[in-house]
C-alpha cells in the first residue's frame, strides 16, 4: 500500500514538473516559442517606445516591439538607403513581431499612445476594413512581412531586410506599402504644456486658494467663524438639540391625537343621533 502511494505521489510530482516546464519553456512566452512574423512600422519619432513594448491589434495583445532603428526617407516619405541621393531626413523604423499575420487595408491606422497617464507606451494597430463607409472601397495593401529566420540567415536586421524588399518592389513597379504610424502625443507633456501656457492664471488661482485657507485658519469669514468659533459651535449644537425636542413633541402630539380619534368619533356620532 505504501509503495502504491509513493508511486502516485511520484506521478503527480512528475506531472507538475512537466506542466511547469511547458509553460516556462515551450509556451508562447518561453525561449523555444515559435516565432511570429515581423513587420516594420515607420514613425516620426520613437516617443518612449523600447524593445518589449506591447503591440495591440484592435485592442487585443498581439505581439511586442523587437527592435528600433533610424531609417532614411525621401521627400515622399518612402524609406531609402542611408547613402541614397534621394535621402531627405530620418525617421524611426520600429520592428514588431506579431503572433499572427494581419491583413491591412488602405484605411488602416497605427499609433503610439498611452493607455493611461501612468502606463507606458503601446503600439496600437487598427488594420482597417474592406467595408465601404464613404467614397471608394478601401484597398487591400501588400506589406513586407519579414521571416526572422530568413533575416538572421542574411545577417541583416528586419528593417534592412524590409528596405531591400521595398526597393526591389519599386524597381518592378509593384505596390508594396510601407506602413506609416502616427504619434498620438504624451498626455503628461500635454498637461505640462497647458500649465505652461496658462502659468499666470494657475499662479493666480493658487494665490487665491492660499488666501482663502489663510482666512479660514484665522477665523475670518463665515466658514472661518464656523470652524474656529466655539460659541457658534455650541449654538449650532443647541439648535440641533432644540430641533430634536420639537420633532419629538410633535410626534407625541400626533400619537395622542391618533389615540383619541376613536373616542372623538364615537361622541360625534352619539350627539348626531340625538
UniProtKB/TrEMBL annotation:
The regions listed as transmembrane in this protein's record are: none
Residue ranges of every copy of the Mce/MlaD domain listed in the record = 36-128
Q: Name one Pfam family in it.
A: MlaD
Q: InterPro entries attached here?
A: Mce/MlaD, MlaD_Phospholipid_Transporter
Domain of life according to the entry? Bacteria
Q: What is the designated name of this protein?
A: Mammalian cell entry related domain protein
What is the organism lineage in this UniProt record?
A: Bacteria, Pseudomonadati, Spirochaetota, Spirochaetia, Leptospirales
